[in-house]
Design a protein that fits this description.
The complex is a heterotrimer. In chain A, helix 2 links the parallel strand 2 and strand 3. Helices cover about 40% and strands about 20% of the residues of chain A. The termini of chain A are far apart. In chain A, helix 10 packs across helix 11. Chain A is an alpha/beta fold. Chain C contains 12 helices and 10 strands. By secondary structure, chain C is of the alpha/beta class. The chains are: A alpha/beta, B alpha+beta, C alpha/beta. Chains A and C meet through strand 3, helix 3, helix 4 and strand 9 of A and strand 2, helix 4 and helix 6 of C.
């Protein structure tokens, strides 16, 4: 039996520590992991917990991220609670197995500390790895601060392991900006945290020796389509209600409210910035300042990136006149992912907001308040003109001549 | 098997070998196992065969070479005796005939349509000059 | 520890109830299946199995059918080893936490992979599993070629073999190098038990599998799997070709205990010339021409040298 850790009501934790504490508290059965900056401390912290008797599950340090997820898949299919963490290049190395985990309906929790993808190599935070995972069939939660990183882990386990769901989930946080920035984190006791997630209930487990199962079959054109459709059906219909249920239960327990789409100052907003990660908090400050200047500014944060909360987002954006989609990843040949998702969300709706796209913060470049002020300025002009007054896609915070497309 | 629609099967493309609980499988013979419809035991590859092995028990010494070297679990051995061939699973490779050490062989290949009684009636006689191979177990 | 199954002779062995089913899609005469049977039937314990992508995997779990009467998993080409290692880690965790459904039963964890999955693409994963010391057996079904995808060379493909990516032609005798020595590499991991086996020598093979199952820690089995399709011989000759391989010492049968002590486990009474083994297979046909016959001499020398080396290692007992 693992030892209980006495925590203060508020601990000063960075995002990595918050995530490792959550993994400890839910008593993960198997963690198979490989270190990579900036997620390494999640694994190191967890190793420390194990070395000091706070973890009684298996902790397997493997030889690559691909092996980490492969081991997680084997462990999850065997039947138990499984989690790991990674970033960037390591995430990219895992990609093959991400599709296996979701296709085999194995509820693994992956903490992704977002980081840029090389070349050129870069250890800092952007959303390239998160975007790389977006078609992999996983649920994707996004944390904006260490508190979120802690809380969303509990929610992820609760949703993923539900027998109506049985899908793996990622909890994203921004590399360094969240992962290495210590803030006050309101904690749960070990008991309360564990009870919120509950005991792991096995399903189709290989270790049930009286009920042998075959996992990871071959399907060709006669079956593959149906299996992928079944997976999509679960992701599209069962997950969002289950997440909302978990958000409600979590609020009841902690008083902290999470939403699929986080709307700040959006009730009467004319212009809105939509972004993810730590940028949400920066944008909120600037939106307040804009309001002081008479611009009805709001901010929308995407909390659940997959499954995409289309209806909830459309409702939040119903009366907005101009929207800026902020993408922290190089789209390499098209508009940014958020721009595309939002365009797809609004195209058949009543909302005829002007939508523009900003590429920012690649490789950990700061998104400053000044950048956001200029974005809100663009949005105001777009609203007044009723059409884009700028190119559709602009790079902000970039040295050299202004770069824009479309 | 019926090709079900997307909502008609287990999630994760998971398959079960048996219907319900199956204990002590390693010591339960096929005839006593609760095979599921997904178990290949219930399928047949008989149509792969061009030639089939036929078994003449008159010459068989139950050495079990055919059992151990059959790639398709198609030599039926019960109580240490060779009792026949599982023609649902035999692909007609002919290994059993090649490894049969008796003189004449107790297993021979015949065209798929060959009548068994006729085959047994015309079974070759012992070759005088060739001595039966010593069935050595290695 | 669980009881070792008594297998005195073939008659006794034939009372085994296979946990691997026919009507799979493996070629007629495929040695993979014979190997799998000998491995699985060597124990009556519960089994947790994995396979890497390859002939065995694609032929035995094509939806909606399975050949497997024990739990089985496949993820990808490179990670059958780690899949079963993950399951073994979960077994240990649930045992510690008292959550096993059948706590009195101790399953064996076995991964199967072809030589492509073992010598090439899955090499790192296997090495990781062995370094970490999972309690598992890895069985390489070594047919010296990517048979599932139509016969491309792997790092197990031996010299002079004509594979689709190392074809013999007017200026090439086919594959240029001898195969990688996986046995030595796996022994160098300090694994408690490493053995080369051939299904035609069933008694030797089953004894080694049982030794492997009894060992604590990762066990590597390199199983010669004669491939009727890619080696190009008639399906009924699988055992005859395998006999030529073991009796010519192209596939010497030996074991390495604790990474050091090497025992030769089969010494043919009459050693067959290597050319008899090569000549029985279409993949070496071109070597029997004036242009390339020097490779036959090289082959014989390679096999002789290896056999001398193995005998010296055995004698040295270190």
């Amino acid at each position: 039996m693992a030892d209980t850790m006495e925590l203060l009501d508020i601990e000063v934790w960075d995002g990595n520590m918050a995530a490792s504490q959550a993994l400890r508290q839910v008593q993960v059965d198997v963690v198979a992991a490989y270190p990579i900056t900036p997620s390494t401390p999640i694994v190191e912290n967890y190793a420390n917990f194990e070395a000091n008797g706070y973890v009684d599950g298996e902790f397997v340090m493997v030889e690559s991220e691909h092996a980490a997820m492969s081991g997680c898949i084997g462990a999850a299919a065997a039947g138990g609670r499984v989690a790991t963490a990674t970033s960037s290049q390591g995430f990219a190395l895992m990609v093959e197995t991400l599709y296996s985990a979701s296709g085999m309906r194995l509820p693994i929790i992956l903490n992704v500390v977002n980081r840029a993808l090389g070349a050129p190599l870069n250890v800092n935070g952007d959303h390239s790895d998160m975007y790389l995972g977006r078609d992999s069939g996983w649920i994707q939660f996004d944390a904006y601060c260490p508190q979120n990183a802690y809380d969303l882990n509990f929610i992820a386990f609760k949703v993923a392991e539900d027998h109506d769901i049985r899908l793996p989930a990622m909890v994203h946080q921004d590399g360094f900006m969240t992962s290495h920035t210590a803030q006050g984190v309101a904690t749960l006791t070990d008991e309360a945290a564990y009870n919120f997630v509950g005991e792991f209930k096995p399903m189709n487990d290989m270790l049930d020796l009286d009920h042998p199962v075959t996992h990871g079959v071959q399907t060709e054109e006669d079956w593959h389509f149906e299996h992928k459709a079944r997976q999509q059906h679960a992701l599209m219909t069962a997950v969002i209600p289950k997440i909302e249920e978990a958000f409600d239960a979590f609020e009841k327990l902690t008083g902290r409210r999470y939403n699929l789409v986080e709307a700040y100052d959006m009730e009467d907003a004319d212009v809105a910035v939509i972004c993810m990660g730590t940028s949400v908090e920066t944008a909120r400050e600037v939106a307040e300042e804009m309001r002081a200047q008479g611009i009805k500014a709001g901010v929308v944060g995407i909390r659940v990136f997959r499954p995409w909360p289309l209806e909830q987002l459309a409702a939040v954006l119903k009366n907005v006149k101009a929207i800026a989609a902020l993408d922290r990843s190089s789209p390499h040949g098209t508009v940014g992912t958020l721009f595309n998702e939002i365009a797809g969300t609004l195209y058949n709706s009543e909302t005829k907001a002007v939508l523009t796209n900003y590429i920012y913060g690649l490789g950990g470049r700061d998104l400053t308040k000044a950048h956001l002020v200029s974005i809100y300025g663009d949005l105001k002009a777009n609203m007044d003109a009723g059409k884009p007054t700028t190119p559709l896609q602009q790079y902000i915070g970039l040295r050299g001549p202004k770069l824009s497309f479309f | 098997m019926e090709k079900k629609g997307w909502d008609g099967f287990e999630i994760g493309a998971m398959l079960r070998s048996f219907d319900g609980a199956a204990r002590d499988i390693a010591t339960t013979l096929p005839e006593n196992r609760p095979y599921s419809q997904s178990n290949l035991f219930k399928a047949s590859v008989a149509d792969w065969r061009i030639e089939k092995p036929l078994f003449n028990k008159d010459y068989c010494i139950d050495c079990q070479f055919c059992w151990i070297y059959c790639p398709d679990m198609s030599i039926i051995a019960r109580d240490k005796k060779m009792v026949g061939i599982d023609f649902d699973h035999c692909k007609g490779c002919g290994i059993c005939v090649e490894v049969c050490p008796t003189n004449p062989k107790s297993l021979l290949m015949f065209p798929e349509q060959k009548d068994e009684e006729q085959a047994l009636a015309g079974w070759p006689k012992k070759e005088k000059n060739a001595k039966a191979e010593e069935p050595k177990e290695d | 520890m669980s009881e070792i199954k008594k297998i005195k002779n073939l008659k006794e062995f034939s009372t085994s109830a296979d946990r691997f089913e026919g009507a799979n899609l493996l070629c007629p005469g495929c040695a993979h299946s014979i190997i799998v049977r000998e491995v699985l039937n060597a124990t009556n314990d519960d089994l947790i199995l994995a396979a890497s992508t390859g002939c065995l995997e694609v032929c035995t779990a094509v939806y909606p059918y399975t050949s497997w009467d024990a739990s089985w998993i496949h993820i990808g080409f490179e990670n059958g080893s780690t899949a079963v290692a993950g399951a073994e880690a979960m077994y240990k965790a649930l045992k510690k936490k008292g959550r096993l459904k059948q706590p009195d039963r101790v399953p064996k964890f076995v991964a199967f992979g072809g030589d492509g999955a073992t010598y090439d693409i899955g090499f790192q994963w296997i090495s990781g599993c062995f370094e970490r010391g999972h309690n598992m057996m890895y069985v390489c079904l070594d047919n010296e070629v990517y048979a599932n995808t139509g016969g491309q060379r792997s790092s197990s493909t031996p010299i002079g073999s004509s594979a689709t990516t190392s074809p013999a032609g007017s200026t090439s005798y086919g594959e240029k190098k001898m195969k990688k020595d996986m046995m030595a590499i796996m022994a160098a991991h300090g694994a408690p038990y490493v053995a080369q086996v051939a299904p035609n020598k069933w008694k030797d093979m089953v004894a080694k599998i049982q030794k492997g199952f009894a060992a604590e820690g990762p066990v590597y089995i390199n199983a010669m799997s004669a491939c009727t399709t890619e080696w190009k011989f008639a399906p009924e000759d699988t055992i005859a070709i395998s006999d030529l391989a073991t009796d010519s010492l192209v596939f010497p049968l030996y074991e390495i205990i604790d990474g050091t002590k090497l025992n030769i486990t089969y010494r043919p009474k009459n050693i067959v010339p290597v050319r008899d083994y090569l000549g029985a297979q279409g993949r070496f046909k071109h070597l029997f021409t004036k242009q390339y016959e020097h490779i036959l001499d090289q082959w014989q020398k390679n096999v002789d040298d290896k056999w001398t080396y193995l005998q010296r290692r055995e004698e040295a007992s270190v």
